[in-house]
Design a protein that fits this description.
The complex is a heterodimer of chains A (276) and B (307). Chain A is α/β, with parallel strands linked by helices. Chain A is 34% helix and 23% strand. Classes of the chains: A alpha/beta (276), B mainly alpha (307).
Chain lengths: 276, 307
């Protein structure tokens, strides 16, 4: 057990220790998704995650969120061991944006209602009114800040928004109540390039304004290089490359492809990653 | 024609009572997005408990309260089947419904129990439809009941807790990501819904003067019919949550008026359940058929979500 630090020491925000996870064990579909995965994120790290299909990127995020039980290993968030904590309780510490824009919001509820739900993440849900007047005016300011014209549509159903708008709202929801860790699971992959760029810029803005520790999975190598202070590459359920600081700034896509081939002994067979 | 007009107050009263049942169903079917078949059993449980309580000398208020609690227990069983034991919601409801058949027989001791309006002080009865003072009038009392119920539900689903239940029905993934205990919320929804259905059952048993082990058969279909008819007719105008519940009530009244017309036209009453099922099937099928077989390319503006 790690004792919570009190001094001005750079503390680890996330520690994944020797995580194993096999899906469908004992069947023809057996798949070892996480294979002795270990990772430590420092407070304020913005880490981009790349890797081929089935490398375990999304599975890693889901392991952090507690979507499934681990076979072994542990997840420690800011000194608290959350390995056994159910998903809805862990949510207190985590902001999440999914690949599918439909997944992060409640389509039949209004924009302000969605935000109000997110503002109460981790708090007990009482018999007090679900949204207050003060909240509404705060949301209007925050939505205006997104620059998508949503501030005048507080009572619109989220289902009426475009994919990009929904992802922007989901980002706002994820950061509304300061999370210890922001998890972005290819959150721009389902958007057209122009919208994706806008949402990415917004992501950067929100991460910097709130100085969030962030884990961003992406298929786009250029984005992985351009954003964040650290880059990790996954393959076969563990991390095969971990670059930060100056080394990361000088990276090129060719370097990454080369590193991938060297580390994994395979060609990086993913069209989407090359189309950048 | 006169006989039809004469049957109208009865149709409205019955529609209102079934409307309360349909409001209960609305919570599971529309808010939680679960088709809960428990209600077929719960309706009778509510009626049976109320009648037996009154026969053993309790007042109508206490009897209905206990009926409400009994219904909530039935919902709790379905909820536990579904969330703790992982049984699909429909099957969980069927299992509870089947066991409620035995439970209801045991509550009543036999297949039906009569409650004579002349010997007991009932809240509603078909004897009170007309020719009574307005404050005793069944239609008036059930309307008050419905208004209070809608007001309470409107309040509850506007609270933090109620919003969590609505979110659970909309998007479970998102709800868990926002720290909402989705399993607990499903159980709460089922408990609340079945409590309301049992309450409706207790009113129905008083109204018709007896509880019968068959009284809930097909209740879910009638409830769905009310929800669907209400939505089809008033959906474009009534948009808020409270007005949705009003439209459900109106849907149930329309259902019973049509029902009376059908009987008046001399259609074999044996066929009525089948007609109800066909009506619900058609209304459920229409949106699907429209989008599947007559789909026009969507004309959406704004940044595309699916590039």
């Amino acid at each position: 057990m790690r004792v919570p630090l009190t001094g001005r020491v750079v503390a680890a925000m996330l520690e994944l220790k020797n995580i194993y996870k096999t899906f469908n064990p004992g069947t023809v579909n057996e798949k070892t998704a996480l294979d002795n995965l270990s990772l430590t994120l420092n407070n304020g790290d913005f880490v981009t995650v790349i890797g081929g299909n089935g490398a375990g990127k999304s599975t890693m995020l889901n392991a952090i969120c507690g979507v499934f039980k681990l076979d072994s290993g542990s997840v420690v968030l800011d000194g608290v061991d959350v390995t056994k904590m159910p998903e809805f309780k862990r949510a207190k510490f985590l902001g999440r944006v999914f690949q599918d824009p439909m997944m992060g919001t409640a389509a039949q509820m209004q924009i302000d209602e969605n935000l109000a739900l997110a503002a109460r993440r981790g708090a007990s849900r009482t018999l007090k009114w679900g949204i207050t007047k003060n909240e509404r005016s705060r949301y209007r300011v925050l939505l205006a800040h997104l620059g998508l014209g949503l501030e005048d549509r507080l009572t619109s159903k989220v289902g009426l928004l475009s994919g990009g708008q929904r992802q922007a709202v989901t980002l706002l929801m994820a950061s509304l109540k300061q999370p210890k860790l922001l998890l972005l699971d290819e959150h721009t992959a389902a958007l057209d390039p122009k919208t994706a760029a806008k949402v990415l810029a917004l992501t950067k803005q929100i991460v910097e304004e709130n100085s969030l520790t962030t884990l961003m999975v992406t298929h786009n190598m250029r984005d992985a290089i351009a954003y964040g202070n650290r880059l990790i590459m996954m393959h076969d359920g563990h991390i095969i490359l971990d670059i930060s600081g100056e080394d990361k700034k000088n990276l090129t896509v060719d370097d990454l492809l080369h590193e991938f081939t060297k580390a994994s002994g395979e060609e990086f067979a993913n069209d989407r990653a090359l189309l950048t | 024609m006169l006989s039809l007009l004469n049957s109208m107050p009865g149709a409205v009263a019955q529609g209102l009572i079934w409307g309360i049942m349909a409001i209960g169903l609305y919570i599971t079917y529309k808010v939680l997005d679960v088709a809960d078949l428990t209600v077929d059993g719960t309706l009778c449980t509510g009626g049976a408990v109320c009648v037996m309580m009154m026969l053993s000398g309790h007042g109508v208020g206490v009897s209905m309260l206990v009926a409400f609690i009994a219904g909530m227990c039935a919902g709790l069983v379905t909820g536990v089947f579904h969330t703790v034991m992982g049984i699909p919601a429909i099957l969980a409801g069927i299992l509870t419904q089947l066991s409620l058949y035995s439970v209801n027989l045991k509550i009543m001791g036999k297949a039906n129990q009569a409650l004579n309006v002349r010997n007991y002080d009932l809240l509603v009865s078909m004897q009170y439809n007309r020719n009574t003072n307005p404050l005793n009038n069944t239609i008036f009392i059930v309307i008050i009941f419905t208004v209070v119920l809608i007001a309470v539900l409107y309040w509850f689903f506007g609270t933090e807790a109620g919003s969590g239940i609505r979110a659970t029905g909309c998007n479970e993934n998102m709800s868990r990501a926002q720290g909402i205990n989705t399993n607990l919320n499903k159980v709460i929804g089922l408990v609340l819904s079945n409590g309301i259905v049992a309450l409706s059952g207790s009113l129905l048993a008083q109204y018709q003067g007896f509880a019968d082990v068959q009284m809930g058969r097909g209740a879910i279909v009638i409830g769905l019919a009310a929800v669907i008819i209400g939505e089809a007719i008033f959906g474009k105008v009534f948009r808020s949550f409270a007005l949705h519940l009003v439209s459900v009530t109106l849907g149930a009244i329309i259902y019973y008026i049509v029902y009376q017309v059908v009987i008046w036209r001399g259609i074999d009453p044996d066929l009525l359940k089948m007609l109800s099922a066909i009506v619900v099937a058609v209304f459920l099928a229409v949106p699907y058929i429209r989008t599947t077989y007559f789909a026009r390319p969507a004309n959406r503006k704004g940044g595309g979500g699916d590039a």
